[in-house]
């Protein structure tokens, strides 16, 4: 009976079991699974974060026209959070390969918008040429983001919309739509967009909004490359530049400027020129040669003053040698021996001194002073000096020769004092 009963129960339950199995199978097949393709274009992590992916290629049939799409996001009357777009282009008519990542920071309550900013984290140059990503537009209970394609292009674009908010946004993401509207197109031609950390200046100039750290070399390749530094809104107009003032045909060197005035030029490793206070250019080599000339001349002057000095001596050594120079006039004195002379007879007497004297005083009358007391014999009228000659004796000393003639009376040998003054 149990067996038969089981058979009956099995037959009774089979349709129900089969129905349950089919229901579970449908749920399993539509759920996210590992290592298989999951056919879902919207995902969420809780009620506050969700994303959805679109692919758009429904452009005007005339590729030459400017055209636009817009992403419609029904945020309602209250919203606060981040809306992130990740876009990818392809290569069909025109090349939009690469893509972009853009983040919108938006908040509103009713008709009051708290914040609405747009930050381009990344955009490839080719994508920026074919597409222009617009700012977020607030419109009653929705916001929309226009994206314009350039004329003479036709490329599909994949769009991932990701929202992170303080509100429950799964339903908002689920109701996002993407549609075409050429009326909202960005005027063309446009300046290709770049990351928000870098801003467009005038012409082809770019402005970096923050600090830049390079992991490699900075290379500038152009005629007369210039690096300029300035203080924004400075009343003094302070600026500094350095530039390679060279091209394919000329080379004026590496110039350093302050307030647009060149103050230093490097023509080469051993040719660096500076602008002096007298507006005359001079080089390091000029300074070095001038210093060498000064040392040579100063050393010679010190040596002339009796203290031997090398032109390669240090400044401290030269200062020491200058202090060693005797000050005032050099003087020397001595006693000469005049032999006995008859009237009119001549003789010469030599004496060596350590400097070249310019003044020589000889006591011929035999009278002289020692310690304030007059001494000696008066020989006046008995002999005279008719010439004195001074010639070099050796490298440091001088020879003084007195030429003496006998006077009216014969004299015997006598000693006389001589004074020499430099």
Question: What is the compact description of this entry?
Answer:
This protein is of the alpha+beta class. It contains five helices and 27 strands.
What is the fold's blueprint, element by element?
Blueprint: H1 2-30, E1 42-44, E2 49-56, E3 67-73, E4 78-92, E5 94-109, E6 112-123, H2 125-130, E7 131-133, E8 137-139, E9 142-149, E10 157-165, H3 170-174, E11 177-180, E12 198-200, E13 206-208, E14 226-230, E15 239-246, E16 251-258, E17 261-268, E18 271-275, E19 281-283, H4 284-304, H5 315-323, E20 331-338, E21 346-353, E22 359-362, E23 367-370, E24 373-376, E25 383-392, E26 398-406, E27 414-421
Antiparallel strand pairs: 1-2, 2-10, 3-9, 3-11, 4-5, 4-10, 5-6, 7-9, 8-9, 12-13, 14-15, 15-16, 16-17, 17-18, 18-19, 20-27, 21-26, 22-27, 23-24, 25-26
Q: What share of the residues does DSSP label as strand, in percent? A: 35-45%
The domain count comes to 4
Low-confidence stretches: 1-8
Principal-axis shape equals rod-shaped
Radius of gyration: 53 Å
Task: Give descriptors for this structure.
422 residues; alpha+beta; 6-stranded antiparallel sheet; 27 strands; 17% helix; rod-shaped; disordered N terminus
Describe the structure.
With 422 residues, the chain is an alpha+beta fold. It folds into four domains: 42-197, no CATH class; 226-262, no CATH class; 285-324, no CATH class; 331-421, Immunoglobulin-like (Sandwich), CATH 2.60.40. It contains five helices and 27 strands. The longest helix has 29 residues, at 2-30. The chain is rod-shaped and about 175 Å long. The relative contact order is 0.08.
């Amino acid at each position: 009976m149990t067996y038969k009963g089981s058979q009956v129960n099995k037959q009774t339950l089979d349709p129900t079991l089969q129905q349950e199995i089919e229901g579970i199978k449908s749920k399993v097949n539509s759920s996210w699974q590992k290592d298989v393709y999951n056919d879902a274009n919207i995902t969420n992590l809780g009620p506050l974060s969700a994303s959805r992916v679109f692919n758009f290629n429904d452009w005007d049939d005339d590729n030459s026209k400017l055209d636009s799409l817009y992403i419609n996001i029904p945020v309602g009357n209250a919203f606060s959070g981040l809306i992130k777009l990740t876009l990818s282009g392809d290569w069909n008519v025109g090349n939009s390969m690469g893509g972009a990542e853009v983040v919108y920071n938006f908040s509103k309550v009713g008709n009051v918008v708290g914040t609405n900013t747009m930050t381009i984290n990344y955009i490839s140059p080719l994508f920026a040429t074919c597409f222009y990503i617009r700012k977020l537009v607030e419109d009653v209970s929705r916001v929309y983001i226009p994206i314009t394609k350039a004329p003479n292009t036709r490329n599909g674009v994949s769009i991932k919309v990701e929202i992170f908010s303080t509100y429950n946004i799964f339903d908002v993401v689920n109701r996002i739509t993407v549609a075409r509207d050429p009326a909202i197109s960005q005027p063309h031609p446009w300046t290709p967009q770049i990351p928000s950390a870098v801003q467009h200046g005038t012409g082809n100039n770019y402005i970096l909004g923050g600090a830049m750290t390079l992991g490699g070399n900075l290379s500038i390749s152009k005629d007369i490359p210039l690096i300029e530094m300035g203080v924004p809104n400075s009343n003094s107009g302070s600026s500094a530049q350095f530039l390679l003032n060279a091209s394919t045909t000329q080379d004026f060197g590496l110039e350093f400027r302050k307030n647009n005035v060149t103050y230093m030029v490097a023509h080469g490793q051993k040719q660096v020129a500076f602008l002096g206070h007298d507006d005359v250019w001079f080089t390091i080599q000029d300074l070095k040669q001038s210093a060498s000339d000064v040392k040579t001349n100063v050393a010679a002057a010190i040596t002339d003053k009796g203290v031997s000095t090398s032109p390669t001596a240090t400044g401290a050594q030269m200062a020491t040698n200058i202090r060693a120079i005797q000050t005032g006039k050099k003087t020397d004195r001595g006693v000469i021996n005049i032999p006995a002379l008859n009237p009119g007879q001549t003789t010469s007497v030599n004496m060596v001194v350590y400097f070249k004297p310019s003044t020589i005083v000889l006591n011929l009358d035999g009278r002289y002073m020692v310690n304030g007391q007059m001494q000696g014999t008066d020989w006046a009228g008995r002999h005279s000096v008719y010439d004195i000659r001074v010639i070099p004796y050796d490298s440091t000393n001088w020879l003084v020769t007195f030429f003496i003639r006998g006077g009216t009376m014969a004299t015997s040998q006598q000693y006389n004092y001589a004074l020499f003054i430099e």
